[in-house]
């Protein structure tokens, strides 16, 4: 009879794997493995993103801003755009109706048409970016100061033609046709166009916008903020969300009529600061959410151009600043609330612990 004896290395590896799944903080169900994602060479995961956004929403956002804001789970868009078999649904169901049915329960206790901003984290091929539905209750442009309807300024997408695109479906997803959008408003945020020097800083660019645009407006729209810009490819996201928004309105406000055409609720990818590497997308995404209130959009006339210099990338990446900020939130909560980490297990040392 042969008895296989594991080596010491194998035993230590098995113990380490088991320890990785120990919960160190009940709030957010953060495990040691999640905590290790704060190392500078790692992508932060959905657990850390949701934990940070929940803390930001409940602790840092004012009560007034909380009332007008809704933040979806990191799983929402994945569930919305999940591929489906149309034969499983009644023949008269449209693709938008099927998508809406897949996530109908997500808004059981909230009417998003009472919110100014609806934040939707999106993950695609391990890359995080942000979609924001703005002022979904509006039916057109209104003066940002007094809310009165306005017919100007006229949107100007730049005046250049953009042909229809051929697109490939993302694995395990069913999304709407991006060609429904004004693709110029996505091409303007392409990596090629972002490489061109534009503006000075947020404060200056915002003031120039206010001077140039005689009337500052707000309007219903769906925006994409992407730190590794996907350009016209991101039009799939806004057109899919618009279809969901329309179905959501029919359910929550039966019998009422509202225009959900691409002209009425425009979609666009904005020029925003870009990550200098391929791993910090999640950190940039949560920073976008915070900046949305700290340095707001001052005019929603398209194209929106004053966020190119929204913030310095140093605010996120220098000395792993954003990672440390997230780490501090976790450690402080572990001190204030009873940690579930067993006494015999030590919190791992991260490489960011050595950065000043």
Number of beta-strand segments: 9
Look at the helices and sheets and give the structural class.
Answer: alpha/beta
Task: Encode the helix/strand succession as letters.
Answer: HEEHHHEHHEEEHHHEEHEHHH
Mean pLDDT: 90
- The proportion of residues in beta strands is 5-15%
Number of helices: 13
Shape: globular
Q: Separation of termini? A: 57 Å
> Main beta sheet: strand number and arrangement?
5 strands, mixed
Query: Cα-atom Rg, whole angstroms?
Result: 23 Å
In the CATH scheme, the class of the domain at 61-153 and 174-311 would be Alpha Beta
Protein name: Ubiquitin-like protease family profile domain-containing protein
Keywords: Hydrolase, Phosphoprotein, Protease, Ubl conjugation pathway
GO molecular function: SUMO-specific endopeptidase activity
Domain Ubiquitin-like protease family profile: 28-292
Summarize the structure.
With 356 residues, this protein is an alpha/beta fold.
Please provide a written account of the structure.
This protein is an alpha/beta fold and 356 residues long. The protein has a domain of 231 residues: Ubiquitin-related (TATA-Binding Protein). Helix content is 34%, strand content 10%. It has 13 helices and 9 strands. The strands form 3 sheets. A 5-stranded mixed β-sheet has the order 3-4-5-8-9, sandwiched between helices. Strands 1-2 form a two-stranded antiparallel sheet. Strand 1 and strand 2 form a beta hairpin. The radius of gyration is 23 Å and the shape is globular. The N terminus is likely disordered. This is Ubiquitin-like protease family profile domain-containing protein. Keywords: Hydrolase, Phosphoprotein, Protease, Ubl conjugation pathway. GO terms for molecular function: SUMO-specific endopeptidase activity. Belongs to the peptidase C48 family. It comes from Aphis glycines (Soybean aphid).
């Amino acid at each position: 009879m042969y008895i296989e004896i594991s080596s010491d290395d194998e035993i230590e590896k098995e113990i380490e794997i088991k320890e990785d799944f120990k919960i160190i903080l009940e709030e957010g169900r953060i495990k040691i493995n999640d905590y290790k994602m704060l190392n500078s060479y790692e992508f932060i995961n959905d657990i850390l993103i949701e934990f940070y956004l929940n803390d930001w929403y409940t602790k840092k956002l004012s009560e007034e801003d909380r009332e007008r804001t809704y933040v979806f789970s990191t799983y929402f868009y994945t569930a919305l755009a999940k591929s489906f078999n149309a034969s499983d649904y009644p023949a008269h169901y449209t693709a938008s109706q099927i998508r809406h049915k897949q996530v109908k329960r997500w808004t059981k206790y909230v009417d998003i048409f009472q919110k100014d901003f609806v934040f939707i984290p999106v993950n695609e091929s391990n890359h995080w970016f942000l979609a924001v539905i703005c002022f979904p209750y509006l039916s057109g442009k209104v003066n940002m100061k007094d809310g009165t309807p306005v017919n100007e300024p006229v949107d100007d997408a730049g005046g250049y033609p953009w042909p229809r695109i051929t697109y490939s479906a993302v694995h395990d997803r069913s999304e709407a046709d991006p060609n429904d959008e004004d693709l110029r408003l996505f091409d303007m945020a392409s990596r090629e166009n972002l490489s061109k020097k534009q503006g000075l800083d947020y404060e200056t660019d915002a003031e120039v916008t206010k001077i140039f645009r005689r009337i500052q407006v707000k309007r219903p729209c769906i925006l994409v903020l992407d730190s590794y810009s996907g350009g016209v490819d991101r039009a799939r996201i806004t057109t899919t969300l618009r279809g969901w928004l329309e179905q959501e309105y029919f359910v929550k406000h039966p019998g009422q009529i509202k225009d959900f055409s691409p002209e009425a609720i425009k979609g666009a990818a904005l020029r925003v600061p870009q990550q200098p590497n391929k791993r910090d997308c999640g950190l940039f995404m949560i920073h976008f959410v915070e900046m949305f209130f700290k340095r707001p959009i001052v005019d929603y006339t398209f194209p929106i151009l004053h966020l190119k210099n929204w913030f310095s990338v140093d605010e996120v990446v220098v000395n792993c600043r954003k990672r440390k900020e997230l780490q501090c939130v976790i450690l402080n909560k572990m001190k204030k609330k009873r940690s579930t980490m067993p006494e015999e297990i030590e919190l791992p040392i991260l490489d960011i612990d050595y950065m000043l």
